[in-house]
Write a structure and sequence with these properties.
The chain is of the alpha+beta class and 337 residues long. It has two domains: 21-141, 60s Ribosomal Protein L30, Chain: A; 156-336, Phosphoribosyl-aminoimidazole Synthetase, Chain A, domain 2 (Alpha-Beta Complex), CATH 3.90.650.10. The chain has helices at residues 5-14, 52-55, 62-78, 99-116, 167-176, 195-201, 215-225, 241-249, 309-313, 319-333, and strands at residues 33-38, 41-50, 83-94, 120-128, 132-141, 156-160, 207-210, 229-233, 267-271, 284-291, 296-300, 303-306. This is PurM-like N-terminal domain-containing protein.
Length: 337
């Protein structure tokens, strides 16, 4: 089976850790860690940090820092189907950061918490060389939370999108191309994953994943973890118009919006064939189906494109490597424009 680079690297550095006998998920098997407290009582938790995005200049606006500090954890909870208990924060401020900036940051934190209906429980604050903001979310469920495991051949890949797909990867491409904010305004990148939607759909789903690492790469992760391949169908209507415009103006294939490592923090669901007709139509789109054959193809216009997921999965986690991968994928996909 093909390897997931992040999982391989994690195993190397983690070694053998002291684990809870009540934890039900394995490493990389879910977006949240899951602990079974009783027969019908599950605790879920996830933790995410925002640091490198600020240091390199991908996220430049304070409002983005605060919004994504909250939503990066909310998106994990949304993929689990659990309901939130609350969120805690660690804010490590760059030395000499003014109290006025900190106050504005926490005002934006409140807006994000209210929007997601996840209360702030507390946290910790300090100083460091650069800003690092960390959120940890707690949730609960009376039924087993969703994981990334459970997909079978014939199951459908369904995205909860709100027609906002593509802004995350387009923002990363803007950064790689060293373009001004006007090329794609950062203020439109405001993911809003819905844990309520996943709860409502929970009886119809067999697995799920948060697309923070990119839509295509997350579909590939699901396929590898479940030893499957897939056939996808391009869906133009799920995308934010500014993301499509960004690609069109630069003669970049819009398929690149599915291949970025920076995602849109949406929920990607696995739906068994028997349940697909029961799904609501609004805000959900079928992207494809899993298959036993280990191939990963996209039907785009009149082309059947073999997506280069092996190259994406093996890409180094640094800006230069991402830039080379971007150039390579653009050249490859532009053959199908």
């Amino acid at each position: 089976m093909a390897q997931i680079r992040e999982l391989t690297e994690l195993k190397k550095v983690l070694g053998s850790q002291f684990k809870s006998a009540k934890q039900t998920n394995g490493l990389f098997e879910s977006d949240c860690e899951i602990v079974k407290l009783a027969a019908k009582s599950f605790l879920v938790t996830s933790i995410d940090s925002l640091g490198e995005e600020i240091t390199i200049g991908l996220y430049k606006e304070l409002k983005t820092w605060a919004w994504m500090t909250v939503m990066s954890s909310v998106s994990d909870l949304a993929a689990s189907g659990a309901s939130p208990i609350g969120i805690t924060l660690s804010t490590q401020w760059a030395f000499a950061t003014s109290k006025d900036i900190q106050k504005k940051f926490f005002a934006e934190i409140k807006k994000a918490c209210v929007k997601s209906q996840v209360p702030l429980l507390g946290g910790d604050s300090g100083y460091a060389k650069d800003h690092v903001f960390t959120s940890s979310i707690l949730g609960q469920s009376t039924t087993p939370p969703l994981t990334r495991i459970g997909a079978k051949a014939g199951d459908y890949l369904v995205l909860a999108h709100g027609k906002n797909t593509g802004v995350g990867p387009a923002l990363a491409y803007r950064y790689l191309l060293n373009l001004p904010d006007s090329a794609l305004p950062e203020k439109i990148f405001r993911p809003h994953p819905s844990w309520q939607l996943t709860q409502n759909l929970r009886p119809l789903l067999s697995a799920a994943i948060d697309t923070s690492d990119g839509l295509g790469p997350c579909m590939y992760i699901l396929a590898l973890l479940n030893d499957l391949g897939f056939e996808l169908q391009w869906q133009e209507g799920i995308h934010h118009r500014h993301a499509l415009q960004f690609c069109q103006e630069r003669k970049i294939s819009p398929v690149m919006l599915w291949l970025g490592d920076q995602g849109d923090f949406q929920s990607l669901y696995v739906v068994p064939q028997k349940n697909i007709s029961k799904l609501p139509k609004k805000g959900l789109s079928i992207l494809g189906q899993f298959q036993k054959k280990k191939s990963y193809n996209l039907r785009y216009q009149n082309h059947n494109i073999a997506l280069p997921f092996a190259d994406i999965a093996n890409c180094g986690r640094d800006v230069d490597s991402y830039a080379r991968l971007f150039d390579s994928n653009v050249k490859y996909l532009n053959r199908y424009l």
